Amino acid sequence: MANAVTIDPSDPLPLYAQLERAIRDAIAAGRLRPGEKLPTVRQLAVDLRINANTVAKVYVELERAGVVETRRGVGTFVSESQTPLTLRDRKRELAGLSESYLLRARQLGFSDKEILEYLASKSKEV
C-alpha cells in the first residue's frame, strides 16, 4: 500500500489530513480495493516516515466514517461496503483540496484572478 499512498512533508496540509485524503483517493481510484488489508499502523508509519499516532488517528477516523474496518487480531481492511460520504464530509474534503491547491498556485506566483480564470476554463472542459 505504501506505493498507493504518499504524503508530502512540504505540503502545508497537516500530515494526518494528507494521509486520510491519500487513502480515500487510493480507494476511489481503485489502487486499494474493498477487502484489501492495510498495513499495520506501525508499518505504515515506518514506510511513510511519520509518527505512528498520526497513522492511528487516520485509521480511527476512516473506521468511524465506514471507509475501513478493523478486525480484532487480524488487521485493518478497506470496507467491503463503502458508506457514501455525507455532505459535511464531502465539504471537508473539498476544503482540504481547495486550500492545498490555492496555496500551491499562489506559491507558483499566480494571482487569485488567474487561478479563478483557470478553474473556470477547466470546468467548461469537464
Spell out the blueprint of helices and strands.
Elements: H1 15-28, H2 41-48, H3 52-64, E1 68-71, E2 75-78, H4 87-107, H5 112-125
Antiparallel strand pairs: 1-2
Helix pairs in contact: 1-3, 2-3
Helix content range: 55-70%
Give the distance, in angstroms, between the N- and C-terminal Cα atoms. 30 Å
> C-alpha Rg, in Å?
16 Å
- Main β-sheet description: 2 strands, antiparallel
Q: Which term fits the overall shape?
A: globular
Q: Order of helices and strands, N to C?
A: HHHEEHH
Instruction: Indicate the mean pLDDT.
Output: 89
List keywords for this structure.
126 residues, mainly alpha, Arc Repressor Mutant, subunit A, two-stranded antiparallel ribbon, 5 helices, 2 strands
Write up this protein.
With 126 residues, the chain is mainly alpha-helical. The chain has two domains: 15-78, Arc Repressor Mutant, subunit A (Orthogonal Bundle); 87-125. The protein contains five helices and two strands; from the N terminus they run H-H-H-E-E-H-H. It has a two-stranded antiparallel ribbon with strand order 1-2. A hairpin with a 3-residue loop joins strand 1 (68-71) and strand 2 (75-78).
Summarize the structure.
This protein is mainly alpha-helical and 126 residues long. It has two domains: 15-78, Winged helix-like DNA-binding domain superfamily/Winged helix DNA-binding domain (Arc Repressor Mutant, subunit A, Orthogonal Bundle); 87-125.
